[in-house]
Request: fold
Amino acid sequence: PLNPILFCLYKPNFLVDIVASVNKMIIGTNNSIIPINEKKRSNNLFIHIWLLCKPFVMYKIRSMGISEDLTLITLKNDHRITLFGQFLRQFKLDELPQLFNVFIGDMSLVGPRPDVAGYADTLTGEDRIILDIRPGITGPATLKYKNEEVLLMEQEDPQKYNDLVIWRDKVEINKNYIENWSLIGDIHIIIKTFFN
Reply:
């Protein structure tokens, strides 16, 4: 059976993560990764959950203005998104600084997306295997829900739909990814991400 701790420590694509992140940071430096995000909830850095619920800072380029609205979901027409932020989010450019997270070992290129308190820390039983590996910039759940903001906007109760449908589906997708992990599979996900 899969030992998630060994998977986390010895996942063969770790070297690939490091090389790719350095390459991307060098080639894609033209102003894209310089503005490191300080996405705030009140006055604190936006914290995500990782290994065994250990919090870490995930870097992003700010795409939202500071708001008293602390909802954890984002809709396509969210009033908090700035005009420049719309451009960044359309092409996922706000995610580029996470290559630094990959370089320092907090994240992997491929894996379950990190989640905030209120979601990741509520996982129980077999679902907690998701917390035992490095989260990724992209992954199978990310690809399936690449238009998540549009999907949520179409719902009568976006928060309820996110919690009862999308979140639960992502957990199952991520568990299946971990249990059936392969390097070839990760390469396939990276290629699909690039062309999507």
